[in-house]
Amino acid sequence: MKFPRALRFMALLPLLFLGGCSTEHFWLLNPKGPISAAELHYMILDVSIMLVIIIPTTLMVIWFLLRYRAKAKAAYDPTWSHSNILEVIVWGVPILIVAVLGYYSYVGIHEVNPYNPTILAKHTQANADPLEVDVITTDWQWLFIYPKQHIASANELVIPTHTKVDFRLTSTSVTNGFFIPQLVGQIYIMPGMRTKQSLLAEHEGVYHGFSAALSGGGFSWMQFKTKAVSQSQFQDWVAKAQQSATHMTYADFEKFARPTVNIGQKTTYFSAVQPGIFEDVIKAARMGKVYPTPNALTENMQSEEFLKHSN
Amino acid sequence: MLVDLQGPWNPIFGRLGLLLEVHYNNPVLFFAFELSVVVGVILVFWATCARKWGYLWREWLTTVDHKKIGVMYILVGLVMLFRGFFDALMIRSQQAIAVGPDSPGMLGAAHGYLPPYHFDQVFTAHGMIMILVAATPILVGIMNIVVPLQIGARDMAYPYLNALGLWLTVVSAALVMIALFVGDFSHAGWVGLAPLTELPYSPGVGVDYWIWSIQIGSIGTTMGAINLIATIVKMRAPGMTWGRIPVFTWTSMASNIIALTSFPVLGVTLALLTFDRYLGTHFFTVGLGGDLMMYTNLFWIWGHPEVYFVVLPAFGMLSEIIPTFSEKPLFGYVTMVIASMAIAAVSWSVWLHHFFTMGAGPNVNAYFSIATMLVGIPTGVKVFNWAFTMYRARMRFDTPMMWAIGSIFLLISGGLTGMMLSVPAVNYIVHNSVFVIAHFHNMFLLIVYAAFGAVSYWFPKVFGFKLDERWGKWFFWFFTAGTLMVFIPMYTLGFMGMTRRLDYISHPAWQPLLTAEMIGIGLYAISIAMFVIQLAVSLRDREKNRVGADAWGTSRSLEWASHSPVPFYNFAVTPVVHARDEWAWRREHGLTSLRPDRYLDIHMPKNTAVPLILGLLSLAFGFAMVWRIWWLAAISVIGIIVVIIYRSFDKDTDYIIPAAEVEKMEKEFLERASKIEGDAPAAGGAAGGVYAAPQAPTKKHQGD
After folding, report:
1. d(Cα B187, Cα B192) in Å, to the nearest integer?
2. Contact B328, A78 (CB under 8 A)
3. Where is the Cytochrome oxidase subunit I profile domain (chain B) (predicted)?
4. SS3 for B196?
5. Which of B3, B626, B624 lies closest to B285 in space, CA to CA?
6. What DSSP element (H or E) covers A270?
7. What are the beta bridge partners of residue A145?
């Protein structure tokens, strides 16, 4: 059987998938805060600058492939293998592009730098107090402590819109990544260490947040909803959380931090949160505190042992 | 015992008692086990029935011939490529099934059919296998075969060391395969994320398998690197000046300089982790002064140069294939050499881009961002040079050329996404997402394309017949369709925010694209069948497809100036090199006759079983260390030392083939070659075997 020549290019059909592009589920193309918007801006900038060189090169290669086929009987020059002008171009153009991209990379990193994102200054009033949130990851849950409000929330983050939120992050055991694609890029959360992040939500809504770094068996279930609400709704929520009957001391935290797979997407609010838990977690980790994973905890998710360790 | 272990341990069987705590009875594993056992039994049965054991022992297991060692490297690589593909199939099928909280689960999983414990091992094994025991052996194998031929050497500088490198790589692959059935494998990602690899979070033997497999294999790779560098520096034929070395050899040189300088870093890193797990030190734990960031730094100080270690030979292959099928010299030879070395140099200053998100300051990130972009310059130059090689060419699209062209397009798209990742502002939103996965698979596929191209390009040189073109093209197109179908959805999922290493997919909007990836994997599976058929058909028609010395008719470098298949001594007499594209120069001057002016004695290394024995002892050592069976580990180490000492006293390691015998063997080769159509012996004298040809350009015309 002879396969029709032209139909060979059917192998390229999957390119049509590009036609499915829309922004609704494309979190990275649909930012809801200034940081993620800036990140998208630099992505578009980077791709556009690269395309200036990539599109002509691709077309050139395709043109050469068609033009200089043996069958096409085009001009053939079997000795041509050097040209000073072309040398200058082939080195010069990439150097130029890299210089431009390098400049924007430098500017961009300062705008969205997790420790001091300059882009947020343009979106906040000079004397407005930012909301402070301490993020602690355990295996495999999220704990968000609001130190000034003395409340904490497990596996759910609630923030007011148009307010700068400053995070301090640490982990009890292994590394996680704090990531809310539509609001802010990633920062690692590491045991015994403290990283920072800041964000601002411009639109109310519920955004997905999750760990972006593998942290073991319960990692895939390790997500939290980020609810960006208005200032008054936020105050209501704080008041509600402060009424919660569940309290949290460091001893309670140690129970909370035992390996737990959050299969059921369980969220809990804590009131009367003991101050300084964040610092205690870092200190404990540095002293060698571990929350060991039982041997092969997640090998059978229907087993007794697993159910003991799941939400 | 210096550390407390979960589970049993006893002095005779070590931790093997863990196996009695039946972990999980998964049909997937039983299928893999049956497949391996059945294939193994068939092979043993065939070897016994066909009385092949003696042949295998003499010709393959104890050989020091660089071509046979190369072929074995490639075979190991292909087998592990197949294993790694199966892992990929499991990863993607699990993800396509386990979508949404209501998706069903089976075999002990809450969703899909792989519990996290098993799934994490699968992707760890996939990554580790594909990079360290699939891509690396295939590339090292091709370098092994081609480099000595391209520079006119008889063998590698250290043939015994070469065989040892191979067998240590085999041990690495064997340990990964053993982990599949005896115990478990690491579930901490192929990079061994600290402190997830530490004992409290990985209490089983999986991480130990991962450590020892990589540790032993990387010693083999380092030996191979020493060997190739020494070969290129010291074993070049007369006239093979630095300015005439073929570009593939140059890139092999650059690549092995990277390997030689980076693999020791990996060795030290893994040794420190070993101390943590075995002796209870705290190098990478958080508590008591350890630092997990140190692990990440050290790992990537090896890991990023390793990326260029595998990509540079691929660039070299393209630089050989494209000129051959363009019937033109490579455009910008000097530039290509400089670019290769520049890539090797820059490879050392980019490692931090793997963890922009670890909280480094903006200026540190900016430095590594720009350093990473610098790699794009020489790489861009290479793309331009291949394009200009095609300019005013007379191109034929044989299978190797198809793969090479595929490579160029993959390099262009992979370069674009690489430049995106190198910008920290962008990296913050795509780091650890499947966008990154798509990017580096894009780059690795470039390597795979180049390697498949290289395999079909140099196959006739090694075996004396061509691979079937028709099935080769089917293979190419199905493989390409699979590539597009898997990786375009994967890039797209990256923009949708999907993270890598997910056992459970909480966001149902990702499902259609995950299903598309499954279809792509199916296309890959079909392409594997095409490849197997291609091999079978080619083997069946081998008499019809016999080729002469110059299999493609337009080949350019020195390896084509020997018989196909190449005799074990490579060249009847050491060739004298006259030009950069030596074979093209000889063809131009009508000097394609392979009959030299006179024959001389040939000095060759003797076969030896020592590398194989050392390999077996290393396997025993690795296995013993994984299961903490101290007595067996001690015995194997002592055994290794004794064998090495014994070998160092062995003075009878080489022999001489007398000129008369060479002449006899050569006569047979020439007679057989004369029967092949289109390979009539050329008029004119010998092309500079013992003496330079009279047509050789004088010094001032050489142009280098």
Report:
1. 8
2. yes
3. 51-578
4. coil
5. B3
6. strand A268-273
7. A134, A152
Beta carbons of B484 and A15 less than 8 angstroms apart: yes
What span, in angstroms and rounded, lies between the C-alpha atoms of A107 and A45? 12
**Using the beta-carbon criterion (under 8 Å), do B501 and A64 form an inter-chain contact?**
no
Helix or strand run (H / E) with residue B80:
helix B66-97
> Which of A258, A300, A303, A311 would best serve as a mutation to test chain B binding (most B beta carbons within 10 A)?
A300
Rounded percentage of chain A residues whose pLDDT exceeds 70: 94
Q: Which amino acid is at B204?
A: G
Q: Strand, helix or coil at A146?
A: strand
Chain A residues within an 8 Å CB radius of B499 = 179, 210-212
Contact B662/B602 with Cβ under 8 angstroms?
Answer: yes
Which uninterrupted H or E stretch holds B532?
A: helix B511-540
pLDDT level of residue B675 (50, 70, 90 thresholds): confident
Q: To which residue do tokens 């990544």 refer?
A: A177
Q: Is A210 helix (H, G, I), strand (E, B) or coil?
A: strand
| Residue in the block written with tokens 């296998």 | B129
Distance CA B387, CA A57 (A): 8
Spatial distance between the Cα atoms of B339 and B202, rounded to a whole number of angstroms: 42
How close is the nearest chain B Cα to the Cα of A100, in Å? 10
Note which residues in 58-87 of chain A have CB less than 8 A from chain B: 58, 60-61, 64-65, 68-70, 74-83, 86-87
Listed residue (B452, B477, B329) closest to B394, CA to CA = B329
**Cα–Cα dist B517/A248, whole Å:** 45
> Could you report the per-residue pLDDT of B223-254, keeping only the tens digit for each?
999 999 999 999 999 999 999 999 999 999 99
Provide the 8-state DSSP code for B241.
Answer: -
Tens digit of pLDDT for each residue in B602-631?
Answer: 999 999 999 999 999 999 999 999 999 999
Radius of gyration of chain B (CA): 26
Q: In b/e form, how buried is each residue of B222-243, taking b as 16+ CB within 10 angstroms? A: bbbbbbbbebbeebbbebbeee
Structure tokens at B637: 């180490």
> Where does the pLDDT of residue B28 fall: very low under 50, low under 70, confident under 90, or very high at 90 and above?
confident
CB distance A130 to A166 below 8 Å: yes
Whole-angstrom Cα distance, residue A172 to residue A246? 21
Among the listed residues B315, B313, B335, the one whose alpha carbon sits nearest the alpha carbon of residue B411:
B315
Which of B414, B526, B416, B495 has its CA nearest to residue A17?
A: B495
Distance of CA B522 to the CA centre of its chain: 24
Residue B684 has pLDDT above 60, yes or no: no
Q: How long a stretch of residues is chain B?
A: 704
- State phi, psi for B685 to the nearest 5 degrees: -85, -165
Residue of chain A with shortest Cα separation from B431: A186
In this predicted structure, the answer to whether residue A39 has a pLDDT above a threshold of 60 is yes
Q: What are the chain A neighbours of B203 within 8 Å (beta carbons)?
A: 292-296
pLDDT tens profile B99-126: 999 899 988 899 999 999 999 999 999 9
Residues in CB range of B432: below 8 A, 6 or more apart: A177, A186, A212, A213, B357, B499, B500
pLDDT of residue B696: 64
Per DSSP, the three-state class of A206 is strand
Residue among A54, A105, A295 whose CB faces B6 most closely? A295
Residue A170's SS3 state is strand
User: Which pairs with CB-CB distance under 8 Å and at least 24 residues apart come from B666-673?
Assistant: B666/B567, B666/B572, B666/B594, B666/B595, B666/B599, B669/B563, B669/B567, B669/B594, B670/B594, B670/B595, B673/B548, B673/B549, B673/B563, B673/B594
pTM for this one? 0.93
The whole-angstrom separation of Cα A285 and Cα A279 is: 10
